[in-house]
Amino acid sequence: MKKLxxxxxxxxxxxxxxxxxxxxxxxxxxIKKVFPSLVFIKPIQEEYSEGKKxxxxxxxxxxxxxxxxYVVTNSHVAEKSKEIKxxxxxxxxxxxxxxxxxxxxxxxxxxxNLKELxxxxxxxxxxxxxxxxxxxxxxxxxMGSPYGFxxxxxxxxxxxxxxxxxxxxxxLWFQTDAAINPGNSGxxxxxxxxxxxxxxxxxxxxxxxxxxxxPSEVVKEVAEKLIRDKKVNRxxxxxxMQALKxxxxxxxxxxxxxxxxxxxxxxxxxxxxxxxxxxxxLSCNDKEINGIYQTDxxxxxxxxxxxxxxxxAKFQVLRTQERTASFNPFINMIAGILGTFSSKPxxxxxxxxxxxxxxxxxxxxxxxxxxxxCKKWNMTVKEITKFSDLYIYFQKxxxxxxxxxxxxxxxxxxxxxxxxxxxxxxxxxxSSLKTFKEVYxxxxxxxxxxxxxxxxxxxxxxxxxxxxxFERDIEKIEEQ
Amino acid sequence: MKAxxxxxxxxxxxxxxxxxxxxxxNSRCIQENKTESKQETEDQRKKIIKKLVSETRxxxxxIEFKFxxxxxxxxxxxxxxxxxxxxxxxxxxxxxxxxxxxxxxxAVIEKEGTVLIPSLSIQSDKVEKITVIDHEGARxxxxxxxxxxxxxxxxxxLKESKKKEWKPINFIQVQAKESSPLGxxxxxxxxxxxxxxxxxxxxxxPRQITSVMMNGKNNQLFVLNALESGYLVANEAGQVxxxxxxxxxxxxxxxxxxFIGTDIVNDKRITVKELKEVTQKFEKELLKHVVxxxxxxxEDKSDIPRYYRSExxxxxxxxxxxxxxxxxxxVFPYTLEREIIKRIEGIKITAQNTKATGKFSGLFxxxxxxxxxxxxxxxxxxxxxxxxxxxxxxxGDLWFxxxxxxxxxxxxxxxxxxxxxxxQKSMKDFVHSVPRLNVKSxxxxxxxxxxxxxxxxxxxxxxxxxxxxxxxxxxxxxxxYRSLRGLFGPQNRVFLLSELKVQFDQPTAHLDKKIMPxxxxxxxxxVWLGVEFQAVGKSLxxxxxxxxxxxxxxxxxxxxxxxxxxxxEKLGLKVEDILLSIKVEGKEREIELTLERGGPYKDYYYxxxxxxxxxxxxxxxTPWRSQKNYLNMLLTEIGEGKKITVxxxxxxxxxxxxxxxxxxxxxxxxxxKYKDEELGFxxxxxxxxxxxxxxxxxxxxxxxxxxxxxxxxxxxxxxDMFMIIQKVNGVQIKDIKHFxxxxxxxxxxxxxxxxxxxxxxxxxRFIDVSK
Lengths: 480, 771
Prior knowledge:
The complex is a heterodimer. Chain A is an alpha+beta fold. In chain A, 21% of the residues lie in helices and 36% in strands. In chain A, the strands form six sheets. In chain A, strands 24, 25, 26, 27, 28, 29 and 30 form a seven-stranded antiparallel β-sheet that branches. By secondary structure, chain B is of the alpha+beta class. The interface between A and B is large, with 47 and 51 residues.
C-alpha cells in the first residue's frame, strides 16, 4: 500500500513536471519567434504644453513586420517626433522614419534605415495571428520596454475580447492581465503560437493588471493602408450611432435588427441624403447592418469608413412618421417591427416606412487639428476640427482655440486662458489656423511700444473682450 | 536854561527809578500772595474731602444683586426677544447677567432705609436677591420698591428697615432753573463707593467742569463726559448737591436735569406694585387693539440656496400692527423684505376675535413700516389710545416699550418700562431718542399714561437700493436688500406718532408702490435691457481710445451679447457698444454704470464648464449666465414703466436713447419646473437665456433638465443636467405642461419605459427611462 502511495506521488510529480516542461517549451518557442523582432523606440517628440513647444524624449515599443524594415507601433509613440532612434534585438541602434500615422486607431508604421546596420543580416519578422479566434482565457505575453526597461516580457491571459471605448470608434479592444506599463506602448501581444494578436496600447493607471491591446486584425488592415497610402483614408457620412441595447446607458430599444441613428451632423452627406435622427439603419449597399449592442458598433463604423468615397451608397432605413399628433409613436414603431404591440392599442396613426436613401460619403477630415506655437505671445493654439473637443466645436465650429498658456507669459498676464476660442484679433475674424498665422506674423513685427491688440475670445459660450499685451519678450527675460 | 534842563532830566530819571522800584515791589508782593492762596486752597480741599467722606460714608451703601439662573429655553427666548445688534446695550450689565451677580453702590435718601440707584438695564423680574451692605459691613436684604417718574433711577427698600435708623444723604437745595449750580471752570467733587477685593471704599474725586455745550444759552447747559451713573456730586464748597443719573451733567431750559438731588428725592415715585397694575391694565387694553396679520406666501421657487436667503424668507411671517385711521389702514412697524412681499398671495387679519382679509398697500417710503388695507367696517380705530401730541420723549421720563409675540397659539404682549437715555442725530439730521433698555425693532412706544405714541423702527430711503445695487459682481445670488439692510443698514430709532401722523391720515401718498406682491408669472420677470456685458477696464479703454468717456475704463458695460427681440435690439445696440449711464426721468442723478462699485474689481465670469461636477450644496451654477445680474437688478429697482435715457458709446461716439422699461420673458431661475419624484429629475422651461447659449433656434420647443437626483432612475438612464429634452416617445414637447402630461400618460400605460430624444451640445441622443 505504501508503495502504491509512493508510486502515485511520483506519477503526479512527473506529470506536473512534464506539464511544466511542455508549458515552458511553448513559451520558449513563442518567444523565439517574436522576441527578435521587438524594437525599442526612442523618439524625440515636439510637445505643445503649457503654452510652448517643448522637445522631450519618450519611450515606446514596436515590432518588425517585414523584411523592408517596416515597424508597427502606436501613433502616440511616433507622432510629432523630430527624430526616432530604434534599438533592435541585437542591441544595435539605428534611426527610423515615419511611414504613416493613424490617430483614430492609435497605430503607426515606421521604416528602419537598414543602411545604417553594421552587420547585414536578415531581420526577424513577426507574423500576425488571427485575432478573431482569440477567446477569453487564452494565454498571452506582452513584450516591450516598460518604463524604458528594454526587452521585457510579461505574461497573462486575455481578460476580455470585446472591450468598447467611445473614444475609439473603429475597433474593439483586447483586455489582458499581462502587465502593461508606459513604454509597453506599441509592443506586440503574442499568443502561445508565437503570433502577434494585438498591439499593446493602453494601461489603466492605478488598476491592477488591466491593459488593453488593439486586435491584430485591425492592425494588419491599418498597417497595410499606411504602407500603401501613407495614411488611412476614411469615408465620412456624418451620423452618430447608438446601439439598440445599450447597457451602459440602459437604453434598451425593442428592435432586433439594424442600428439607431442618434444624431445626424449638420451639413453632412447623411443630412444631404435625407437621413434623420431616430431612423433605424437596416442595411447599407445591401449589406445587413446590426448594431444590437455597443460592441457591434466598431464593425459598422469600419464598414462605413470603407465605403468608396464619392460613390452613391444605398442606405436602407426604417422611419416612423406621424400622421396626426399622437402619443407613443416611437414605441409603436418598434412594436411594428416586432409585430407586437407593447402598449395599449394605439388610437393614433403612425406609419413605419422602409426607405432607401442615397448618401454620397466624403473623405473624412483630419481628426486632430494642427498646433501652432506663438512664441511672442507665450501660448499655443490648435485648430478646431469636427472631431476635436465637442464643447469647443459646439461653441464655434471653425478657427483656433488656445491649447495652452505659459505661466506668467504675455497671454496669461493679459487674461487669456486655456480653451478660449479666438474670435477676433484686432478687427480680423479668425476663421482658420491660416488666418491666425497671418495675423500673428504681421503683429509680432509691430514696433516696440505699440505691441498691444484687442482680442475677442469665446469663453464658455460668451464673448469676452481683452487686450493682449506682448510688449515683454519673455524668452529674452528668461535668458538673462 | 541849561540848568533847568539838567534838573528836569534828573527829576525824570528819579521818577522813572521810583516807578520801576514800585513795580518790582508790587510784583514780589503778588507772588507772595499767590503761594499763600494756593496753600490755602490745598488746605481747604483737604478739609472738604475729609468732610465729604465723613458726611457721606454712612449714607453710601454697597449693593449686591444676585440673578435668577436662566433655563436653557429662557436663554434662547431672551436672545430671540432682544435685538442684540443694539449698540446701546449696557455691556456691563449684560456681562453681569451672564455671570449671575452684579455689584453696585447706592445712596440712602431716607432714614427708613430707602436706597437710590441708577436704573439697571436688567428687568426686575430677573433678580433673585438684593443685599445692601452698610458702612459697618453689615448685610441687609432689600427689595425693589419704586421707580422715579422723571429720572432714570430706581428705589430699593430694606426689608427690616425698622431696626435701624439710617442716615440719609443731605442734598443741599439748589435752584437749577435760574442759574446752573455749576459753571464752566468750577471745581466739584464726585463721591463714590468702590468694591476692591470684597472691601468697600469711599472715594472722592476732585473734578472740574471743562466743557460746555455750544448752544448759545449762556452756560445754562453744561456737560462733562466720562461720568458713570450713581456718582454723588458736591460743589466747590463741599455741599452734596446731587447724584449723576447719566454720563453727563445737564440741565435744560425748563429746569429738567440729570443730577440735582432735591429734585430727584422729591420726584414722583411709582411703586413696583403700581407699575405692575398699570402694566397689566395697559396690556389688556393693547390686546384689544392689536391687529395680527399672517401672510400666505407662494412657494419660493428661486434657485437661491437657503444659505443666501434671509431667515424670514423661509418661514411664514406673522406681524402685529395697529389700525391708524378710520379708513381701515393698518400699520406695521417692521422691515419686510421685497422677496417676501413679492410672494404674498393672501393676507389673514385677526383683530379681537374678528377675522378678515386684507390687501397689501405698500412699504412706507422713508421708514421701515408697511401698511395693509382692510375693510374699515371690520377694523376698529381707537383714537383714544392714539396720542400724536408728544413732540418728543423727554430724557429720563418713564414710558413703555411694547412687544408682541405669538406664543402657545395666542397673541402675547409684553410691556417694559423704558426711558430715553441719549439723544442722537440720525441720517436726516433728526435728533432721535435712544432708549435705555434694548428694544426689539418693531416694538411700540407707549406713554406713561398708556397712550400709543410711537414705533421703534428704522429709517428707509426710497431709492436706497437703486443707488446701492453692488456693481462688483455681474451675478448676485444673494439678496442685496438683506445685506444692505442687515450689515450697514440704518439704525433703529423711535418714530413718534407726531412725526408719522401725516402719513397715517393719507397712507397712499407715502407708500413706495414699487415693491408690491406680484403674480407667480410676473415674479421671475425682471426689468431688462436684454444684454450680456463685461467691464471695460483700463487697457481696453486705452486700445479703443475711450479713456475719457469711460473714465479709464472704470465706467461702462461693454455689451458682449444682445438677446433677440430685446429692448436693446430694438434700440439698435450691438456687441461692442458700451453702456455708460442711465438717467431716470424726473430724477436729477445720473446712474453711472460700473462694475467697480462696492468691492474688488471682478473682470471675468467663471461659470462651471459643461463638464464639471454639479456644484455644491443645493446651488447649481448653470452654463448660461444668470439674469440676476447688476444691470437687471438695477433696472428692476428703477421699476417697470419708468422712462429712462440710456447713454452709450458706439465706437467712440457718444449716443443716447430713450426707452420705457419693460420686463423680460421668464428666465431660467424662475421658470416653471416639473419635478418627477419617482424618476428623480427636474425639468424647467426652455427660457430665453438658455436658448441663446445652447443654440436652440427660436422655433424649437422642449424642456431643460435642471436637476438629477443621485442614484435615481434618470441618472441610471444617463440623463444629464442641462440636456434639452425635445421629444417623448417621438412626440414633440410643446411646453412643460405638455411634458408633464406625456409622462403622466406613460405612467398610466403598461409600457415599461419611454424614450426621450435629447439634445446635448448640438447632438441628439436617445435615452430610455424605465419605471
